[in-house]
Give the backbone structure.
Amino acid sequence: MTTAPGRPLLITMGDAAGIGPEVIVRACVRGDAAGCVVVGDLDVMRRAIALRPEWAMPVAVLDEPGDVAAVPAGTLPLLVPDGLPARLVDAGWGQVDARCGAAAARCIEAAVAWVRGGQAAGLVTAPIHKEALSAAGIGYPGHTEMLRALAAEPGHAPPPVRMMLANTELRVVLVTIHVSLRRALDLIDVDSVLQTIRITDAALRRQGLARPRLAVAGLNPHAGEGGLFGDEELSIIAPAIASACAEGIDARGPYAPDTVFMRARDAAGHLGEFDAVVAMTHDHGLIPVKYLGVDDGVNVTLGLPFVRTSPDHGTAFDIAGRGVASERSLVSAIRMARTLRGV
């Protein structure tokens, strides 16, 4: 990948029927997206701008990301990828629509190409809708899986990646992501747990932690209670932790998943014992992070050859098009990407 000075971050618009376009506009109005370039549909972004009179701003359609340097303040810079569905703006707010799924995927593909070509510094993705992706025939259940495939070098397997959700109090990295719980149990083995620990340790070191303290959550109640409630802790998780420790990684556990997040939480009056928690399944790990509040949460994909962050919320179809959605999580994602850019 080539590099160039002053490369912008790219913000993909997400599902056109969701809150992505309007929270992007709100972030632009506030100035929190200064220097970023939106990747999306012109009419969709204009529709979002029109939701509130105080959001009125011109849109500058760019030929390439670097053109943002010439865009006047108070203007939304936009890259429109080839291949977007026609009349995308006709898709109604808050509705699952195959056109929106196809457009969201096309924006991601184009943005990754610009990032990997060295024309942009990283990627911030507004929320997509998994049903809309499926309706469009997109063979990935979410951003993480799609980005992993797009990151593959020609002739090589995609890189191993993991999802980290983080806020100011807690970081959680997942061993399994968007699969059924029954399928997730089959995917948890020594290699997958050890790989997750390695990826987490390496990512946090790149973020400036000299020796990250990692807690590994168990799978079963009470972390299996010595095998009484399941043996995955004994046969899978503990051996993975031991191997990580032998490599010089500060990994500990397995800990009971109903208490480890409280121990790791770094809040006022409570110094967290750990820098991150490795959790076995999607809901095990994400419920505690989201319970602390989605407004400041950020999703970071670890293991990619480029920076990617996103808000810690979905498309919010129930409020889309009303101009009331909060931009705070998107702004947090932009800030995180700026911190990580070039990592």
In short: Confidence is low (pLDDT under 50) at residues 1-5. The first helix runs from residue 20 to 30. The two ends are 13 Å apart (CA to CA). The chain has two domains: 1-158+306-336, 168-292.
